[in-house]
Design a protein that fits this description.
about 90 residues, mainly alpha, 434 Repressor (Amino-terminal Domain), 4 helices, globular
Length: about 90
């Protein structure tokens, strides 16, 4: 059975993958997103790598920024999470 911390880590990583996918689909740089959202570049890096947790308010900021429903940030059905292909879309 997974611990709460393991689930939190997995969710952070998967949300980070979704953020990176959204940014990449628009050909935005991390620096541009950071500037537009008044965040440090390192903060965007940490969010996308899943090493930093974010608040619900910050998730809402990203949903507004990318003009998507917030639920889209939790749409993991197309992300493989196990093995060497972790994080790649299928």
């Amino acid at each position: 059975m997974r611990s709460t911390q393991q689930v939190r880590n997995e969710v952070r990583k998967l949300v980070g993958i979704r953020l990176r996918q959204m940014r990449g689909a628009l050909n935005y740089t991390q620096k541009a997103v950071a500037s537009d959202l008044s965040l440090a570049h390192s903060t965007i890096c940490s969010y996308e790598s899943g090493t930093r947790a974010m608040s619900i308010d910050r998730l809402a900021d990203f949903a507004v920024y990318y003009d998507i429903p917030i639920s889209e940030l939790f749409s993991f059905h197309r992300v493989k999470t196990v093995g060497e292909n972790a994080g790649r879309q299928w």
